[in-house]
Amino acid sequence: MSKKPKQTSFGARVFRILAGYEIAVVCLSLLFVLTFFGTIEQPWKGLWTTIRKYFDYESFFVLPTRADGKAIFFPLPGAYWVIVVLSVNMFLGGILRARKGWRKAGVLLSHFAILFMLVAGAVSSLYKEEGQMRVVQGERSDYAQKLFKHDIEVFRYDENGDREPPAIIRSSYLKALGEGDKLDATFEKFDFKLRVEKYLPYSNLALDSQGSPAPEGAKVVDGFYLAEVDKNVMQEERNVPGCYVTIRDKGDKVLRELVLWGSNPNPVSFTHNGARYGVMYWMEIWKMPFLVELHKTFGEYHPNTGTGPDNPGIPRWFQSNITKVAGDEREDFRIVMNEPARHEGYTLYQSGFTGPRPGETPSSTFAVVRNPADKWPEYALYASAVGLTFHFLFMLFRYAWGTRPKPARATPEPAT
User: Fold this and answer.
1) Is residue 135 within 8 Å of 366, Cβ to Cβ?
2) Element (H, E) at 44
3) How far is CA 178 from CA 198, 211, 243, 338, in A?
4) Distance (Å, whole) CA 387 – CA 384
5) How many CA atoms lie within 13 A of 231 on its CB side?
6) Which three-class secondary structure state does DSSP give residue 266?
7) Which among 76, 158, 326, 345 has most CB atoms closer than 10 A?
8) 299-305 contact pairs (CB < 8 A, 24+)
């Protein structure tokens, strides 16, 4: 009697599917398609917006569209979650299920390096922080400002007119406000409270005048009001939020009404019980563990792209000569567009500069990035190169030293 075939358990069948080549092929094909449509969409919607749309962890599904918003393909899964599935597949099939032994060490190392690179992308997406630092030539700075995070700071002025440590309303609370929502904030150090309302994520500060009156229904404070504008998809940093603030005492009496806009660098002040206070809506301050001294900044502009001394055009290249000061250590750097400076997980990129103008001192703007996985892809490439080199050399030596299979001898025919 023939033996019955051995039944495969349900768990084994699931493991076989998750670790199979089929999922790897599908994931790699989806990543190719997503990258293709993201590249097509980038000139229409901008780099930052396209990356957020296709590769952010909040994007479960993506609908590729044209510049006018019309779909050009059916919905696809977000690239972040495709990479998550590919990582699980790589771990189960490329490491757990793969044959072990020193002969397969190179292949295993290469698989591990690819998996490590995928994990690096996920860590970077979740924990990377970005900001910008502007330094005037001949001066120094030890802080940056976080992009896309605007906080409300409330502070008191001392007798000398200097600011005391502020109380802060973080941007996460403000961004959570929907249309018509209000946020009431109280502070231990102050005997008044704030109410934030009419939050606009994309706004412009406008002047109510006879030539350009405020639209009907707009709230005007001290001759100014917030005008809602369309989102700038090409330059995300140009999107500026705004809100209205009402200050009340403990008896709920209105002390002051303010209109706050994210690009106004000057605080709005008021007086209460003989003390002077200030309220400011500005990008979150990001303290750096080092100082940046800017000695010289210079560059060139593309010809015929400017309109005059105030607008010289589009920069072709720019460079900054700086000194990084961390405690007693001083280190000189030359930062060019593709040559950043690094310090203990922080990376400074040259993102812009202001050349000599009448009445102004040249300055440089640095993009500051703190990414715990900044060097991980580089390490993964090195490990993959070592693994593949070991595997190819092993196969070469095996072939050259006679371990390849020998051809079978012909069997002589029996004599008649």
Assistant:
1) yes
2) helix 21-45
3) 8, 32, 12, 40
4) 5
5) 8
6) coil
7) 76
8) 299/353, 299/355, 301/355
Residue length of the chain: 416
Dmax of the chain from CA atoms? 127
Q: How far is CA 303 from CA 57, 318, 331, 354, 357, in A?
A: 41, 15, 35, 16, 17
Question: Which residues pair with residue 291 across a beta bridge?
Answer: 325
Helix (H, G, I), strand (E, B) or coil at 295: strand
* Two tokens, residue 118: 């995928």
CA 103, CA 106: separation in Å to the nearest integer? 7
Tell me the sheet residues that pair with 76.
62
pLDDT digits (tens, 9 = 90+) for 281-300: 988 888 899 999 999 888 77
Rg, Å, the chain Cα set = 30
Q: What is the DSSP letter of 344?
A: T
**Residues 245/184, Cβ–Cβ less than 8 Å:** no
Could you tell me which residues come within 8 angstroms of residue 343 by beta carbon, excluding any fewer than 6 positions away? 289, 290, 324, 326
Q: What is the pLDDT of residues 205-236, one digit of tens each?
A: 998 888 888 888 888 888 899 998 888 766 67
Picking from 96, 101, 78, the residue whose alpha carbon sits closest to that of residue 16 is: 96
